[in-house]
TrEMBL record, chains A, B:
This is fumarylacetoacetase. The gene is fahA. Ca(2+) binds at residues 114, 187, 189, 221. Pathway: Amino-acid degradation; L-phenylalanine degradation; acetoacetate and fumarate from L-phenylalanine: step 6/6. Residues 113-394 form the Fumarylacetoacetase-like C-terminal domain.
Amino acid sequence: MSWPDLPAGTLFGLDNLPYGVFSRGERIRRAGVAVGDQVLDLTAAAEGESFGHLLAAGVLNPLLAAGPDVWAEVRARVREWLAEPRHADRIRPHLVPRADIVSHLPVEVADYADFYSSEQHAINASRIFTGGDDLVPANWKHLPIGYHGRAGTVVASGTPVIRPAGQRKPRKAAEPSFGAAKRLDFEAEVGFVVGVGSQLGTPVPIDEFPRRVFGVCLVNDWSARDLQGWESQPLGPFLGKSFATSMSPWLVPLAALEQARVPQPAQDPEPFEYLRAAEPWSLDLTLEIRINGHLVSSPPFATQYWTGAQQLAHLTVNGASLRTGDLYASGTVTGPAKDQRGSLLELSWGGREPLAVGEETRAFLEDGDEVVISASAPGPGGARIGFGEVRGTVAPAVV
Amino acid sequence: MSWPDLPAGTLFGLDNLPYGVFSRGERIRRAGVAVGDQVLDLTAAAEGESFGHLLAAGVLNPLLAAGPDVWAEVRARVREWLAEPRHADRIRPHLVPRADIVSHLPVEVADYADFYSSEQHAINASRIFTGGDDLVPANWKHLPIGYHGRAGTVVASGTPVIRPAGQRKPRKAAEPSFGAAKRLDFEAEVGFVVGVGSQLGTPVPIDEFPRRVFGVCLVNDWSARDLQGWESQPLGPFLGKSFATSMSPWLVPLAALEQARVPQPAQDPEPFEYLRAAEPWSLDLTLEIRINGHLVSSPPFATQYWTGAQQLAHLTVNGASLRTGDLYASGTVTGPAKDQRGSLLELSWGGREPLAVGEETRAFLEDGDEVVISASAPGPGGARIGFGEVRGTVAPAVV
């Protein structure tokens, strides 16, 4: 039940209510909640509420820092405003068509870490590069492998992605060369945004996941495979990733994902105790990847070997502290089927089997290509919870 | 010439004037300039000046963002205040004994990246782990290898370093185990702090280095070698580093380092054009490492293969943007001699040749060990420019 007109089958019903930051022509950034085809201007609607001051910063960080009791309170109030007709007169003026807004980064990102938690992705990468499974390292099933990325180049969905320049050395070349990346790729990932920070020296127990993490979004971890291949030994990816990482505008609260929680794939060997959760945190999101409007893949997030809860526990087991606004991403989401692969590297098998994209084919991304990653998950009563999309178009290199 | 009493041979004369952030019992953090054994309370002294508002934030970020013209203006004014007796009556009340202050992080760190730019360190690491030079990768002389670290765990000098827990697998073990790190190490490094940010998609030309980078500090890149060894394939160091990175309190402006600039070691092969600087940016800093008060090494920074200017150009050549407060570090500084090694890993040759530390020996750090890294560089007229020190004591693991 709700008084605003919600389109039939909307992915943004009252059981979703994801948070974002938007503007409308004016320069002021406002907190918003997506509902149907509209956005509730939460900054305006919350004026006078006890939590109103948390929504006036132009980023969601103050709300995130306030912790799970406040998250629950705000969510309950927003739902009440939209469900009960007696609030319609006051709230209606704060509803804006979603088509009329510009979305911004929902949070000021503190640290950004990226994992590598899809077993099928790890296997595919190994087979593509070596022809065998030798590249799946011995540590892979013992810990969620990850690395830190560049927080300052996490960009809002829609930001053009300029093809990076850099060094690369094709396997057959004797010497490296410099120029625009030739093997530009996307990686479809799921991101987790930390609300409540932690103290240096104190690991975060895995079961604190829902009290530390505010919500979930989509991430495109753009990757220049040729730059990455040349630079990554021995310290991992650097410039092959740091030119841009795109983040979807809407943070879906964990509270909206109760129906999406599913049992985790079996883990063998059994992980160390700090990686064992009392409750399952695998999430049944189905991602969809479109290149220039053509659906090319539908990766199933529930197949990930390591969950967001395990990643959080691992990230902090050495005592590393969390800060409000920390973003960590799942790593490329790749399922067992061919049309469930989460990167073009896999979809084109290292460029050797170009992928059909409408009438055309792609080994890697070309200038002008638009990549859109969207997702949805089961909600209550057969409804679906939408994540919106993370979108980016490749712009030509500057060199 | 100066009117405050400066101790003979001080490393903090009027040609140095490094910036930091301090407090004195009260909770308010103030900008300060080290001079002799004292600190000028710059926040107070600059009240009423055109740049006073840049010094009231409790971190130096606003000053750093203001750019090189303002940096030069502030430096000239501070020098004038301390050099000309006519300012003594006004300025004297703002001088505080350095022994009476608590130092804090000088900047809010935006992104933190770490390089690997000492050739001798790379060679030593390879020999320790393989017995040969096989681990120095083919890319090493073509680009300054680096990776992103965790900005949120960059801590002020003096912060206790809690021994991290995590997974490790000794080479002879069949399975990994979990527990407190056994091979805890330091890495003596030089850090560069970015003042003026740059735009996404626009590489920063190498010769903009002195207009982008505000100053230089010391960094201890604490490393748990056993955690790092097990986790690093294929995405590089993660939890083996992210538990703590210590930063010295004083940012020495590049303007204080003119006499420290020396020709760079020959580079063969000649690097790509974006890595070729018109002017030399090797810096003749001599580091000193003390464990529990005993001098164990004196690494010479001038021997680094890649300079801070080259690292900056590389970091951004893919279009990655800079932000005010970005910190990037040189990587372990290791010279050719045994007593010039910048890590205990090297000084104890992987633990096989324990290092004499006073009456004791160390393979790796023990609980309670204090590591102090200090440095100085040539200044005008035979004076030396001091960097102060970055200090940390190992606290027992929490597990």
